[in-house]
Fold these 3 entries.
Entry 1:
Amino acid sequence: MAFTNVLLLSQIAGYVVALILSLCIIVPMSLHQDEFRGHCLLFSTGNWRESDGQFVPDWASQMYCNYTIFVGLILFLTAAVQIYRLSMLMYKGEDSSFLSAFVDVITSVFLTSITLIAAVIITLGFMTWCQCMTKRFPSCELAAGNDIDKADNIDTSGFHIELGAAQFGTWSSLSIWVGLSVFATLKLLRYHQLENMKVSMYRERQRLIEAASSGSGSNKHPEIG
């Protein structure tokens, strides 16, 4: 029972952290798209115009940014639901069933996978953009705040902080969801072990009953008329 309580508390704590980290994905990526007038800098490239020093971007698909925001929303909603569900179970002194534990494992592994994809997209996409920025500026960070694209009227003041926060959010979320997957797997294995113990105890009880029945039967002798 103590192990169950510790595991349940660990899961709740993990989901609380996952909830907070999901906001580190949703908020900065949403701000970025708003400041860039709906454009997404992830995997965007371009050239610097020599005449006026303006950047002529070749914008990548918005799906890169939309996907990361979508992942953040899924993580947020899942964590919120799990916090409520597990908190109610702890309040009632109960624990999840074998089926719900199995669903938790599948869900955690799935969310870990899509979070990994989002983390890779943000990291590689941001690197692609920064490679273009460093053709003119000493570092990508120094490009922030400069009016590099008047044609699209984008606000570059916060892109470096926002994408940095999103990177932190996705990679940190990935580590948390890996941990939650481990917790869910441990709980599932525990249920499996308990089920095996019940089956073994049932078989042993049946064997003892059969042994007792056969023993009592052999002690009976037929009456001689």
Note: The radius of gyration is 29 Å.
Entry 2:
Amino acid sequence: MDALFFIQLFIVLACIGIGGRYGGMGLGAGGGLGVAILVLGFGLKPSAPSITAMLIIICVIGAVSVLQAAGGLDYLVRVAEKLLRKKPQAITFVAPILTSIFTLFCGTTYVAFSLYPVVAEVAAEAKVRPERALSATVIAASVAVAASPMSAATAGMLAILHEYAGISLGQILTIALPSFFMAAIVTSFSVYKRGKELEDDPEFQRRVAAGEYEFMHTEQKKEFVASAGAKKGVVIFAIGVVLVLILGSFTELLPSWDGKRLSTPMVIQMVMLTAALFIMIVSKVPSSTLNSGSVFRAGLMGVVAILGVSWMTATFFDAYQPELIKVFGGIVNDAPMLFGVVVFLFSLVIMSPAATVAAIMPLGVTLGIPAPFLIAIFACTCGDFIIPGANQIGCVAFDRTGTTKIGRFVVNHSYIRPGFVMVISQVIFAYLIAQVVL
């Protein structure tokens, strides 16, 4: 590889790093700049962005946005809150699993983020150190997108692996789901006795003595009454998810033409758009609210990010495909876990599992890494916990007891231990399961 390769690699990394500072839209714009430089400046042939993945994301985000407009997501938050309050002493184990289930169902951490304040208060009321429950919950909910049939990250993996090795959605989930739940339990155990008990914590004692902390009284908690439309919307969306799982797992049920069966990505698009329409009609969702929710805005920025990043990285990797295979092919085949480390490190910069999948997983395909192993390292796309983001920082504020912290060196925060435990254990479990089922 000559100097030109490293110059162009630096440009790719610089565009990701600079764009990533401005969120999803910035990533997409940075990717667009990178493509322009590579193509117009260096004469590289432009590759195609991940259109299939983006179409799936658009359809899923559309359905979830309609569900949010119908009040369905708020209804799910209240259901989860009631369940959390039933077992307050077990909050360190219950909260990560419960919030993750809602993330798995919706494909977004919106519901989980709405539950973080509840987790903090329930833990404090039960005299459980909130740091334990919050740190495990935030990590589990964020990594859950790498096991959700509805997430943008899974959509990207499906699009790549379906074309590469004919992998179905059911095969991905057969590995991702059980490994995720086992890793979540291991993560909860890793923080179960972390730190001093709440009543012995010096910071908590100081806040109580200074009058900075008071337990919430029952009358302070507002009662939420879900509308009939919200409940119907959740049911319709759930039916759509079940249909996606069935048709994505049993592809023999799908029609075929000239010996070629209807692809799973197209099935997801059809089902999600259909579900969105039925939610609009049955739940009587006002058209003015459909594109104003947080899910729609975040999803749109995610699509832009994947467009720019996948387009730029595909252009770069395709241009140097023979050289990459020659130099790294043997190394990766001898020690494939090194590729997992590469994916994890890239996720630190890209700060988005879906964008990481779009940017790096095609390189794994280029290097000939087996599909089962690529599924096993799926969780490595969730390394964005190293540098505290909105969820981590928000939970520091939600924890009024002061036990959840961001350290003076930034990276020495409450989420480091559960983050590494979650990702590493899930990769190990997924690898073992993949050896059996694929």
Note: The longest helix spans residues 294-319.
Entry 3:
Amino acid sequence: MMRAIRHSEEALKVALISKSSALVKQYESLDPGERLLMNEAFRRDSILFRPITLQSASDWISAHPEPTQDFEEFYRDPYRKKPTPQSNTIYIQAIGSFGESRVSTEEYVTWLKGYCEAFYYGMTVKLLAPVPVSVTGCSFRVNDNTHNLQIHAGDLLRYLKRKKPSDAFCIVGITTIDLFPKESWNFVFGQASLTEGVGIFSFARYDSDFYSPNYKGRLKRPKKPSKGDYSIFDDCHTPAITGLLLLRSCKTLTHELGHIFGLRHCQWLACVMQGSNHLEESDRRPPGLCPICLRKLHCALGFSLARRYEALVRWIDEGAAVAPERAAKFRNKDPVDLPKPVEAFQEWREWILKCLAVLQKTLLALGKIPPGILLPVPGASNPCSTSLTCSAGPWTTNLQVSNIRQEGQTWHLNNRIGDFRKSVSSVDSLRTVLKGLAFRSLPG
């Protein structure tokens, strides 16, 4: 039963822009490049935003019918939680240990923190010191079906509510221990109180071996644990931190935080805010937001789309490489400064660069090249060197120019094979050259 959910162009326009004259005017006041990118929602041949594909009757939209939420409904929601200058911090609380590998709990949650800072660009994200399960005082059980340990989601929410700092927009608990909401339920991926700004999410079932008969988290001799005896968690299995687990964790965390910002499950286009009923469906949804959900988050936080995408590329690129002088440390399983496993993020990175190309193309066409912004090209490998501040990752001016070098007040532009050279003596001249080259080299 594979089918794509295709909305009409008119329905998508109303969902994104609205029929309200005030909200239409608000949309028209956006940066031209940002509007051009969001308008990709209406293009049936768009390579950036695609329809949602349902593959079985167990997929979320089929199994859990719910009303859609367009931008106007989001904007006018009286219960929507909004960041304020007094409460603009996302707190992350790790519960239990993370990863039976070289990666420590602290390092893993630091990666998640950095991703959240980029995804929710403009918000402050802080880590609270990891705590063992015993500190929360939560109830727990052994699941009758999987024979693995589970902790009670509702008890954890109450613990987090008590611990929530006064400047918190929200506090989210993360764990690699399986969750259950009540005795009659088999499990739950996560649970949140949107009005209270608290949530708890488990990554246990994102371990590739979780549903395998050989899963190490199964208790060999399952028995009913003694109430309050948290020593049972001393040898609790936690999955090895892989690139795939990190990607799944980042998607889950940003999805659930999106709900706290007031974004409901997306039913417009393929989007990280889609609901998911099972792991295969969760893997299918992309890490990014569709234009309709992107406008919602943009409205909530007021960020520059280009700066946000640059921050996401920077997070992927930073810390992924291993310096040769540190290789011996890794062989000795030193848990400090380990490389970030981002191989699963490369397709996402290429997609972001395509979005940035759309944003920058508009600025170049209008002759508005902001200081510090150079055109990103998917596949480029060398960062440029220039007095203009280059943003994250491998940036270049276009497919022709691979290097910009400054000597005094002169900028030299050239490529590797030497068939293009240009020298200019002012920033204005440099921008003129970049505008001409980059605009010609971009498709469409």
Note: The first strand starts at residue 3 and ends at 5.
